[in-house]
């Protein structure tokens, strides 16, 4: 990962804040500011103009979804700044609210996963590059929703695996690496998935493909 990356961190728990700063530092990412409330998060982001903002959802001043709201405000004001939101609880609606109509440069991770440094640094790398990094448990929740006449039932087990990884934000190459198959094999699965789900092939960009899948899953 590039050592030139700059991050702003929003986390009101001292131990968690220090731990995340340590993980980022070891990966060569410079934390230019670390704050404990959503108001300061927005202010220092505008001041420092970092490559990525990493924030907890629940922070002062209200200890509600202040961090999420701050992240949405930052995305609206500075779309070139990548944003990763950390959540203590699994809530797919938070992830979908953050993504909105554009999943590029967005990450949503459960805090418990960040205990593994590679998870956080991989997410940073993907969102800074313009991709997305959505927690697998969030995608599993969306995949598990009951639907009438559910087209997901027509997917093969391998297609469901590919669909989940697509929704998390992985490219065809990334999916191939995780499933130990070839890229052409993944491409065939992707075509089959879009056909069975009645979705238009969103091949013009990775984030449009992710958005198409998420729109389907949240129906």
Automatic annotation (TrEMBL):
Q: What keywords appear on the UniProt entry?
A: DNA-binding, Phosphoprotein, Transcription, Transcription regulation
Which SMART domains did the record assign?
A: HTH_LUXR, REC
Q: Any idea where the HTH luxR-type domain is?
A: 148-219
Spell out the Gene3D superfamilies in the cross-references: 3.40.50.2300
The UniProt entry's GO biological process terms, in alphabetical order, are: phosphorelay signal transduction system; regulation of DNA-templated transcription
Query: What InterPro entries is this protein classified in?
Result: CheY-like_superfamily, NreC/VraR/RcsB-like_REC, Sig_transdc_resp-reg_receiver, Tscrpt_reg_LuxR_C, WalR-like
Q: Name the Gene Ontology molecular function terms of this record.
A: DNA binding
**Response regulatory domain mapped to chain residues:** 6-128
Record-listed 4-aspartylphosphate modification sites: 56
Entry coiled-coil feature ranges: none
Report what the protein is called. Answer: Uncharacterized protein
């Amino acid at each position: 990962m590039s050592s030139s990356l700059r991050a702003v961190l929003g986390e009101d728990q001292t131990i968690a804040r220090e731990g995340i700063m340590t993980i980022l530092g070891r990966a060569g990412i410079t934390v230019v500011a670390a704050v404990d409330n959503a108001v300061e998060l927005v202010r220092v982001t505008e001041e420092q103009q970092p490559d990525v903002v990493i924030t907890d959802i629940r922070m002062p001043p209200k200890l509600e979804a202040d961090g999420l709201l701050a992240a949405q405000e930052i995305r609206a004001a500075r779309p070139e700044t990548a944003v990763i939101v950390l959540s203590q609880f699994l809530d797919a609606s938070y992830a979908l609210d953050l993504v909105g109509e554009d999943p590029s440069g967005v990450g949503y991770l459960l805090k418990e996963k960040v205990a593994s440094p590679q998870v956080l640094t991989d997410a940073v790398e993907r969102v800074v590059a313009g991709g997305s990094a959505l927690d697998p448990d969030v995608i599993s929740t969306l995949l598990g929703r009951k639907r009438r006449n559910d087209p997901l039932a027509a997917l093969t087990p391998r297609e469901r695996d590919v669909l989940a990884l697509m929704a998390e934000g992985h490219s065809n190459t990334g999916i191939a690496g995780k499933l130990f198959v070839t890229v052409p094999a993944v491409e065939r699965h992707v075509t089959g998935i879009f056909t069975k789900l009645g979705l238009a092939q969103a091949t013009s960009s990775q984030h449009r493909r992710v958005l198409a899948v998420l729109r389907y899953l949240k129906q």
